[in-house]
Every structure is written in structure tokens, then in C-alpha cells.
Amino acid sequence: MADKPMAADRSAGARSPQQHGSDGVEQRGRAEATSPAPGTRRPGGRTARTRAAVRDAVLSGLADHGYPGLTVEYVADHSGVHKTTLYRRWGGLEGLVADALNMAGEDTWTPPDTGSLEGDLRELAREVVDSFSDEAAAAAPTAFVAAAFQSTRAAEALHSFYAERFSRCEAVVARAVARGEAAPDTDAAALVRAVSAPLLLRVFITREPIDMALAEQSAAAAVAATREGAYTRR
Question: Tell me, what's the pLDDT at 4?
Fold first, then answer.
């Protein structure tokens, strides 16, 4: 499963510029009440380009310094977006990191379709290995996970990212059910968690290396448990 959340987005609410004149307060209130979320205006235009530049800066900062070392000033310097704009549109560091995860969830990733449940789960497990076995490639996604322990907004965004991934994996279970490889009430999210869990335990808890042999073992164990109905909804 593309377990590597690699995109950045700005999730703080956008606010209208300061208004002048006797009706400024009223105009500002109306603008703030109807302002869309950051990055939703003029898709494909300047907003999208700015959002991508900020995302890249957030990813670079997370990879180089981790969440504790990332600052709005760093993002401003590396994205070319003024610091006051970052605060106005993203609200601060938490908003920048949370939106990076939101942007990661906007990709076109689809789960594998190998023709068998075991093959699909094996490919999902291999994607986890690809994402985290290389230190350089794993730097940003690891920092995202670390940020989720220090920021409520980052935690919520990470949860949403994986909830979307699990939702997409429902197709894997649906195909397995049609082939008679899984019970109709198999929980896709529980099954995918079971495939990833042994790998992520080593990455984040015991700090052991992971490889393709372990990916195949995790997939085989999940398939065996599925056959016994371990992941049926109760």
C-alpha cells in the first residue's frame, strides 16, 4: 500500500485581506464566512502552483529536520511564498503539515490487482517495504508519523490519509470475495492493517530492518487468517 504520505497541503482556513472604510468589518466577515479551504481556489492555476511549492518545502524540511526542526520561516525561504501569506492562508506550522498530508491523499493511487488475494496483499506489503526500507525515501513519511504525535491537526490528517487508503483497498476484498477467497463480510481496513502491521512495528517500534521476505511472510499470514475468518466484521 502506498503507505508513504508524500504530499503537502495547506489546511488552515483562508482569510480575506484587511478591508478599509466604514463597511470594512462587515465585508471582512462575509468574506471569511464564505472563504474556501486553502488550495481549493482556481485549481490548476496560481493557487495550485503555490500549494505545490509549499508542499515541496514542507517535505524537504521534514526530511532534513523532522517536525521539531521545521519552521514557517524555513517553508517561506524554500517555497518563495512570503511568511505572512503562509500564516494567513495556512495558519501556521500545524496547518502546513496537515495540508501536506491532505494533498498526499489527493493522488491517484489504486491497490494492486494481481488476480489473487495473496498476490494483491504481497504487493501491498512490498509497497510498504519500498516506502520505508530506504532511509532517504523514508525520511519525510517517518516525520509525518512523528508529527502526528505532536500535533492534533497532523494526527487528524494522518488518520484521514489512511482511512482513504483503506477505503480504496475495499476493491481488493471485493475481488477476493468474488473469487471465493474471502468471506463476504471481510473488513478491508482490518485486513490491510494486518498486512502492514508487522512491517510498521519494525520500522517504528523495534527499529529493525524490513525486506521483501518479511513482506511475503506478512502477506501469507494475512491470507491464512482471512481464510479462517479472522477479519470478518463482528
Answer: 57
